[in-house]
TrEMBL record:
Lineage, top ranks: Bacteria, Pseudomonadati, Pseudomonadota, Betaproteobacteria, Burkholderiales
Coiled-coil region(s): none
Name of protein: Glyoxylase-like metal-dependent hydrolase (Beta-lactamase superfamily II)
Span list, region Disordered: 193-214
One Pfam family per UniProt: Lactamase_B
Domain of life: Bacteria
Keywords: Hydrolase, Metal-binding, Zinc
Organism: Roseateles saccharophilus (Pseudomonas saccharophila)
């Protein structure tokens, strides 16, 4: 069974998620925005074997620690979608703009496309491309665990911002309705910021997209 731990990191309180297979103890870290010693301590405390970095998108609070973590731990960087290449190229500028520690540059070892899968231990998660917040945003869905790691696409009671370069409000709404709602009402999602919620609750009550789509 897939297990996970959510660790809010950086001044933006970005939800970095440590996910692992409880059989093999192999783990991946989703969106290591910063506070790497804290993340690695959580890995050690649980006796996990960190195998990969998965990125939903390349905003600084989600990707700022990626280059350093990959270099120091010898980890492959998986994701996001190629649409976020320009955000990766601009990480140093993002660091200065938002007062983050200087971010190391990186090139993903594997770009992700809609319909791809990622694997950790015996657990396989589906990849869905959900542009709108950024052009290359992806989400990771475990149908067996009924969990989805959705970055900044959808929040409890809100949706991702679309006023950054490459943002598109209609694309975001379409992605939520076409890619997230079909995951099922009982699917719990872990957003990039704030508390967890369920697809069903947001589909019915979210003021930005509530009541839209089946």
């Amino acid at each position: 069974m897939l297990q996970y731990l959510t660790l809010p990191v950086t001044p933006f309180q970005q939800n970095c998620s440590l996910v692992w297979c409880d059989v093999t103890k192999d783990a991946a870290v989703i969106d290591p925005g910063g506070e790497l010693p804290r993340l690695l301590a959580a890995v050690r405390e649980r006796g996990l074997n960190l195998k990969a970095i998965w990125l939903t998108h390349a905003h600084i609070d989600h990707a700022g620690g990626t280059g350093q973590l990959a270099r120091e731990q010898g980890l492959p960087i998986i994701g996001p979608h190629p649409g976020d290449q320009f955000w990766i190229a601009g990480l140093a500028q993002q660091s200065k703009m938002f007062g983050f520690p200087p971010a190391e540059g990186f090139t993903p070892d594997r770009w992700l496309e809609d319909g791809d899968t990622v694997q950790i231990g015996r657990e396989t998660l589906a990849v869905r491309h959900c542009p709108g917040h950024t052009p290359g945003h992806v989400v990771f869905h475990s149908a067996s665990a009924r969990r989805a790691f959705v970055g900044d696409v959808l929040f409890a009671g809100s949706i991702g911002r679309t006023d950054f370069p490459g943002g598109n409000h209609q694309q975001l709404l379409d992605a939520i309705r076409e890619r997230l709602w079909p995951m099922g009402d009982d699917t719990v999602f872990i957003p990039g910021h704030g508390p967890e919620s369920s697809i069903g609750h947001e589909r019915q009550h979210n003021p930005y997209v509530g009541g839209s789509g089946a």
